[in-house]
Amino acid sequence: MVNPVLLIVVPLGLSFAIPLFSLISKRIEKYIPVAALVFNLVVSLLLIPKVLKQPINVFIGGYLPPFCINLVAGPVGILFSALIALIGLLVSIYALDYIREGAKQLYHILYLLLLTGATGVVLTGDIFNLFVFFEILCISSYALVAYFGDRAGIESAVKYLIQGAVGSSLMLIGIGLLYGLFGTLNMADIARNIDSVSSISVFVPLVLLITGLGVEAAIFPLNAWLPDAHSSAPSSISAILSGIAIKVGIYALARVIFTIFGASSLLQFMVFLGLLTLLVGEVSAFSQNNIKRLLAYSSIGQIGLIVFALGIGITYGVVGGLFQLISHALSKALLFLAVGYMIYRSGSMDISALEGMGKRMPLTSLAFTIGAFSLVGFPPFIGFPSKFLIIRAALSKEEVLFTVLIAFVLLGTVIEGAYFFRVIQVLYFRGGQTDIKREEAPVPALIPIFILMILIVVIGIYPKPVTNLLNSASSELLNRIEYIRGVLG
Amino acid sequence: MKRIISFVLLAIVALGIILSLLYIPFGMPKTKVGEHYIEKGKQETGAANIVTAVVVNYRGFDTLGEVTVLFISAIGLSAVLATRGKKIAKKIEPASAILYTGCRFLFPLILLFGAYIFIHGHLTPGGGFQGGAIIASAFLLIYLGCRGRRISEKRTKAVESLSGLVIVVVGLIGLAVGGRYFLSNFLPKGILFSLFSAGIIPIIYIAIGIKVGSELAFIIDRLMEESE
Amino acid sequence: MSFLNNYIYYIGALGLILIGLYIILVKRNLIKVIIGLSILDTGINLFLISIGYMSEGTAPIFEKGEAKLARMVDPVPQALVLTAIVIGVAVLALALSLAIRLYHHYGTLNLRKIREQRW
């Protein structure tokens, strides 16, 4: 049995070693992230059957919790780490050709460290360790957003950095208060003792943690950095940020709210916040002319939907939310990867510059269309079962409030469909030139696009294995007693 | 307008933190984790400095993450400052003889002091990060005093990567050999208060000291280069 | 007076945090905002250490030949602050390098003027 700590340590060690490898040969540096992520993906998939029976606890240093840092490799953790490894692997294959200029070695080191940080966040069981890995994730993303070095990139990176740093500082104050109140930093230990102090004193650390994590997770008032950052970054990094980084923020939020604090009184608030985020994101996306900003606002909308689903609070809701998370990760990554080469070929990020891409880059345009349809929720694609689960979960609560809220969710979906159709129309049905020659994206870009398309269609048609996995994942997230017993015995 | 909003926000934050602090009296013993470390730390890890024992052994994973964060910052800074234009060589006024000689004289002494701090991390206050910062300040002295001297970027990067790898490899050896836990203390604990005690703690701290020193010197070097 | 004696650390740390947040929210020059970030980090580190203090406690380091166990302060917040200081330095270094690049592009560090990304 492979120790889950290797999921974090092997990419970390390899990223430390990249400068040494490049002393030997400059050509192999771009293959090292690919190798590390293949390892992660294989190990995560091998561990899935084992963690479904019982979560694996890894004690770092050999002492017992709460006197050590522990990793909790449960269904949620391994599922997320498999998702991170999958998308990371596909985007790293894409980047083999996409990253041609600038300090390439540094890009690959930062990229691998970003994914290491993400994997660390989802696997850890200690709240200060969560903060440290979260910082690894955030700081790598600050540096990667500024990778191209142009005006827009640096400006977005500065704004992202300031907001992210303030968020992390607030989170650290919250962690300090938690330590002062409970005397321990282990998540299971805090969860066990949460009722021993008065609820008003616990409220403040909770709010601070939600605010700090919410900056990265991009929930409503805290997402001012997202449209700039996701649109000015290189497209491979936009795919990773939209597909992984904000999801990891949502995971951390869910872990804090559900497992540590068990705050069932917050669920109503989460539902409204999610809905607000959804509507703000979709309406803002509607009026965009820049394709990457449109996709960034669409990410905000989808995050709102995921938070809404998690806030419903019952198992079905969490399953729907997690499924929507996976579906958005795959679809948005596909969209950004497709758009990356379209922008490269046409030279501009305006939607009108994409005219005629349907003939010029047919496979890439097909990929964009599939990604867009999947995000809106059309049947044979993965977006359909995920949205269906969310709606069914909300309706099963049998309250008038939820029926009204679902109407708003459907409104958001309609707006989403409208703006995506507008882009698809530009892709296929405009452009009067008849002599456009085909210049498709290069092979390293087509492989991940193709694999993502297949995954979207296959899981959309046959979602059963994924929903089974998600059932155990959601029960781990909601069932605090089980979690505490699993760690502390 | 903006000031009013920010005052209101700050008042809310302050009120919240004060409200929570009322439940955390100052100076009271409050933790069981801390007491356990103080009581059992000497036997379990063999280090006399309990903070070092906590940083390297009990919470060693955090330290690994922290070393990674500093690495990311050095790499990110280098990526952002990667010069695209041509460098205009400015004429550097050479330092006076007293300054030059004085800095060169002090440089190895400061390095020695920094090395002393991180080698004795498990016995006296201090440790890898503190010693590394002192080493970087020695390099800063050279940059400020004897202008025009530079460190070789390739060698610094190699030293950084190598020390980072040492930490990860030591952890992995712990995984394979002693007790099958990552970063377990598998070397013999030795006699308390002697230099070669506390298992892997001195090794890790020496690696961290060298890594942090070279990273901070690298950051200073890049920023100095940018300013010329 | 004894109240002030006990809580002066909390008050000082909270004061630094509020000053840092105020600077970040209000000031327009990017360098001042970065300095505010640094003050915020310092305040938080002071806050964390003062949570771990035990009255009449000494540093948690054992000396040779010490017979009885003197009361020691909590070592865990000190380890946390060690990590937090380094993370703060890392963010600061990255922020300053971005400020240098921003100045190259725009020629000014006034955040009001650096607003190329509109709606």
Largest sheet of chain C: none
| Sheet with the most strands: spatial strand order of chain A | 1-2
Classification by helices and strands of chain A: mainly alpha
The level of helicity of chain A is over 70%
Q: State the total count of DSSP E strands of chain A.
A: 2
Number of helices of chain C: 3
Radius of gyration of chain C: 20 Å
Give the C-alpha Rg of chain A: 22 Å
In N-to-C order, the SSE pattern of chain A is HHEEHHHHHHHHHHHHHHHHHH
> Greatest contact pair?
A-B, 62 and 58 residues
For the record, give the distance between the C-alpha atoms at the N and C termini of chain C, rounded to a whole number.
54 Å
Strand content of chain A: under 5%
Number of helices of chain A: 20
* Level-2 CATH architecture of chain C: Orthogonal Bundle
Can you tell me the number of structural domains of chain C?
Answer: 1
Q: How much β-strand is present in the residues of chain C?
A: under 5%
Average pLDDT level of chain C: 85
The number of distinct structural domains of chain A comes to: 1
Question: Can you put this structure into words, describing what you see?
Answer:
- The complex is a heterotrimer of chains A (489), B (228) and C (119).
- Chain A has 489 residues and is an all-alpha fold.
- Chain A contains 20 helices and 2 strands.
- Chain A has one domain.
- In chain A, 77% of the residues lie in helices and 2% in strands.
- In chain A, strand 1 and strand 2 form a beta hairpin.
- In chain A, helix 2 runs parallel beside helix 4, helix 3 runs antiparallel to helix 4 and helix 5 runs antiparallel to helix 6.
- The two termini of chain A are 22 Å apart.
- In chain A, 66% of the residues are buried.
- The model of chain A has no long low-confidence stretch (mean pLDDT 88).
- With 228 residues, chain B is mainly α.
- The longest helix of chain B has 26 residues.
- The mean pLDDT of chain B is 83.
- By secondary structure, chain C is mostly helical.
- Chain C has a single domain, classed as Helix Hairpins (Orthogonal Bundle).
- The radius of gyration of chain C is 20 Å and the shape is elongated.
